[in-house]
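Revision sheet: structure tokens.
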Amino acid sequence: MPDSVVTISDWAFSECRKLSRITIPDSVHDIGEGAFSNCALLDEVEIPDSVKDLGWGLFDGCDKVVVYCREGSAAENYCRRNGIRFTPLSEGEGLAY
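Predicted:
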């Protein structure tokens, strides 16, 4: 995903059957409703602190997904409220692909 992206629109990646992991760039501030819903193979999503608004049902139908995010971030709070598995990342830490 290019660094020029600021918003991931509602349902943008919904039902992308081959999407298994994604790192959202620091340029993104908002992720719309259902943006990753029904991506059955999605198992890793890294969400930066820059994302402040996460829409309803982002990961509906993504049974294997684990969100990697900073402690205290909007992403962590979203995961806690919605029963989504997450792993906190330390400052400067990210996923290695």
